[in-house]
Amino acid sequence: GVSPKLLAAVAKVESGYNPNAVSPAGAQGLMQIMPTTAKGLGVRNSFDPEQAINGAAKLLARNLREFKSVPLALAAYNAGGGAVHRYGGIPPYAETQAYVPKVQKALAALGG
Q1: Whole-structure pTM over 0.70, yes or no?
Q2: Are 58 and 40 in contact (CB under 8 A)?
Q3: How confident is the model over 73-90, as pLDDT tens digits?
Q4: In this predicted model, what pLDDT tens digit does every residue of 47-62 receive, in sequence order?
Q5: Distance between CA 24 and CA 78 in Å, rounded?
Q6: 95 is catalytic
Q7: DSSP string, the chain
Q8: 105 phi and psi, to 5 degrees?
Q9: For an engineered disulfide with 32, which of 2, 14, 19, 74 has Cβ 3.0 to 4.6 Å away?
């Protein structure tokens, strides 16, 4: 139930479409999912694009149901749902404040 264009926009911003990407924080693969989050989503190999995309779709679908807003769902994808709840919106973290508009811009460029 998650738009393929939204998933593509997240992949573009997260990894530049690189399935072998690893962030300094340890997020892995095309969708830059943290290993513990990946495990909870049933992703056995974050570097497998199909598993990564399916895991990200589960996470984004959950976030969209919970927050009922694409910007808040994206903020939760980046900073965690707890942070979105704690701050009552997009958390005041520089990374998250930059991340949400970047993904929205990438989504718009994809026609989403």
Answers
A1: yes
A2: no
A3: 999 999 999 999 999 999
A4: 999 999 999 999 999 9
A5: 14
A6: no
A7: ---HHHHHHHHHHHHTT-TT-B-TT--BTTTTB-HHHHHHTT-S-TTSHHHHHHHHHHHHHHHHHHH-SHHHHHHHHHH-HHHHHHHTSS-S-HHHHHHHHHHHHHHHHTT-
A8: -65, -45
A9: 14
CA–CA gap between residue 20 and residue 95 (Å, rounded): 21
Q: Return the structure tokens found at 48.
A: 């497998």
Amino acid letter, 81: G
Which of 14, 50, 66, 95 is catalytic? The answer is 14
- Distances from the Cα of 91 to the Cα of 44, 79, 81, 86, angstroms: 29, 8, 10, 8
Nearest-angstrom CA–CA distance, 74 and 36: 19
Residue from 84, 48, 53, 87 nearest 66 by CA: 84
Return the structure tokens found at 54: 């399916």
